[in-house]
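VIT family protein (Halomonas lysinitropha), 252 aa
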Amino acid sequence: MNDRRRESLEHEHRPEAIERRLREPSRAQLIPDAILGGIDGCVTTFAVVSGAFGAGFSATVALVLGVANLLADGFSMAISNYEAIQAQREHVEGVRRSENHHIDMVPEGEREEIRQIFQRKGLAGETLERVVETICSNREIWVETMVAEEHGLRSEGLSPLKSALATFVAFLVVGAMPLLPYAIPGLDITRQFLSSLAVAGLMFFLIGMGKSLVYHQPVMKSGLRTLLIGGAAAGLAFLTGHLAQALFGVGM
């Protein structure tokens, strides 16, 4: 096993493999977008289903409310994510313009910032001066280094449209799963709810497992953690619906 792993790592770190990997656009941002959309979609629709069941609504009402929330909340969440990523990109661009201006106005001060940044990384003497000279000889590299090292910002992989689409698609696909039992004829409302509960639990667990594979976390721990979070949200919605029925007579 270790030999195969070592061989795989050596293959991934060949010069041509590294070059190919670095040329590919970053997809790191889309993974958390999809995870967030999937979890929120499943929580949203199953919360509606749970609230409707707790309030005593019919299966038709639960399905209509679930679909309406699925589309409206999914679109709202995608737009919100788009605006957030766009704002982040605009912030990076603003910092980049500011650093360009600083280089024009106080180049020696900006050069000293580069020197101290890499000095803190352990470089010194002639090696440090060569690094400073190399970076400051290229305006674009100079600015990007300041943006990343001084401000801790990055713009690579930030695509508002792709992030919004990843969120929306994950929200719709995963969020639709708890509604499927309500579209099956012949099931009474209790069985529909229990089937929806099982599907939602499976979705939460699978999302957690998928997240663990991407971020190299313990599979069972991540799956159970996501399941508990989703279950807590659904339980709160069921309790709210049940209390609404009891206190205000809401229900069918």
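Residues 28-239 form one domain. The chain has a mean pLDDT of 84. ok done for today
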